[in-house]
Design a protein that fits this description.
Elements (H helix, E strand, L loop, with lengths): L6 E12 L2 E12 L3 E5 L6 H9 L6 E6 L2 E2 L10 E4 L11 H5 L10 H14 L15 H13 L5 E5 L7 H18 L2 E6 L2 H7 L2 E6 L2 E6 L1 H6 L4 H6 L4 E10 L3 E6 L3 E6 L12 E4 L5 E3 L8 E12 L3 E8 L5 E7 L12 E6 L5 E3 L1
Parallel strand pairs: 3-8, 3-9, 6-7, 7-8
Antiparallel strand pairs: 1-2, 1-4, 4-5, 9-10, 11-12, 11-14, 12-13, 14-20, 15-19, 16-17, 16-19, 17-18
């Protein structure tokens, strides 16, 4: 997926009301042809509503939704170039796998043999070759999800809409299906739009992500930009884990901002590390993995501060430490990979913490 790809979907000042409730509040943005795009946000933020307006299951009160260059005003759901995989999968238990997959071809003019070939092709595409005669009710959760995908893809939509399709799976199967969906999207080459409240899922699967709060898009960017350079404190707090440290702004020029961060000291930040002002009290944010414990005579490559371990959380491959910085009441969480020879430290241990000014983001 490249930035010069054609636009598949465009939103122009889209508003949606349910009575007095303003569900979508001036949505603007584009989704490119052939990209894996995610709508991410907490419950009630409007992401599923936006997905349903793309599908045509919900109308909009004002604004424009364009799909493949065409205005979708008054275009019924069944004639839009989209198809949806629902959270519940909506598999018909009394039908076979092949009957479920071929359900959308009931009124298709193709011959019976041609329809059977299309069903077989769709099943092979999702890794269910030879499952056509199996009873749908005898499938596992992951297999039902694949059947739902095959049933949607057999109609060859330009856009596949995925409404939290992995939420019913256990952790291991969910992670497996994330990879399978990425491979499938690359194979078929059509636009996938995923609705999820799972930040990790969105980061793993997406080319770009729209983070939504209260009916608005707070930031639309690629996963690395969202994680490394969140536009607001609210986005930073929602995407992964972020430490927030009180800071005082000392000076500002067109290219840099100097701050005094509690427990870290004075530091000069590039203006790119200081998103647009939102009126909040200034804080600097940094991720747990950008902080490092220094062992023995190890030296920091850039900056160093002292601290005391307040809590230890062991996760097998990683250990998370909550550390009070420099004799202050500022507590940060940092992560250390558990490698052979590296001890897991105890609560109360005095430590040295290395950090880099380039890892900081200023929110103000």
């Amino acid at each position: 997926m490249t930035s010069d790809q054609a636009t598949m979907i465009e939103f122009k000042d889209v508003h949606k009301y349910y009575g007095d409730y303003h569900a979508l509040r001036g949505i603007n943005g584009t989704i490119r042809a052939g990209e894996f795009f995610s709508l991410l946000g907490p419950s009630g933020c409007g992401k599923t509503t936006l997905l349903r307006t793309i599908a045509g299951f919900e109308g909009i009160d004002s604004g424009v939704i364009m799909i493949d260059g065409k205005n979708m005003a008054n275009v019924a759901a069944n004639v839009r170039p989209t198809n949806m995989v629902f959270q519940s999968y909506a598999i018909f238990p009394h039908m076979s796998v092949a009957e479920n997959v071929g359900f959308g071809l009931r009124k298709d003019p193709r011959t019976k043999a041609e329809k059977a070939a299309a069903v077989a092709e769709a099943l092979e595409m999702v890794g269910l070759k030879g499952y056509g005669n199996r009873a749908a009710h005898a499938l596992s959760g992951g297999q039902r999800q694949r059947v739902a995908l095959a049933r949607a893809l057999i109609l060859k939509p330009k856009v596949l809409l995925l409404d939290e399709p992995l939420s019913a799976l256990d952790k291991k199967m969910r992670e497996h299906m994330q990879v399978e969906l990425i491979k499938l999207q690359r194979q078929v080459g059509i636009t996938f739009i995923l609705v999820t409240h799972d930040q990790e899922e969105a980061l793993v699967m997406s080319d770009r992500i729209a983070v939504m709060f209260e009916g608005e898009i707070a930031q639309l960017a690629d996963p690395e930009t969202l994680y490394r350079r969140p536009a607001t404190k609210k986005v930073a707090d929602f995407i992964g884990t972020m430490n927030f440290i009180p800071a005082e702004i000392l000076s500002e020029t067109g290219n840099a901002v100097e701050v005094d961060a509690k427990g870290l000291g004075r530091v000069m930040l590039d203006i790119a590390q200081a998103p647009a002002k939102s009126g909040d009290s200034p804080v600097v944010g940094l991720r747990p993995e950008t902080l490092t414990l220094l062992y023995d005579d190890q030296k920091a490559s850039e900056r160093e501060t002292e601290g005391v371990i307040d809590e230890v959380i062991y996760f097998g491959d990683m250990t998370y430490y909550d550390v009070y910085l420099g004799g202050t009441d500022v507590e940060v969480r940092l992560s250390m990979r558990n490698v052979p020879g590296r001890p897991v430290l105890d609560v109360g241990t005095k430590v040295r913490v290395a950090w880099s000014p380039s890892a900081l983001v200023l929110f103000r």
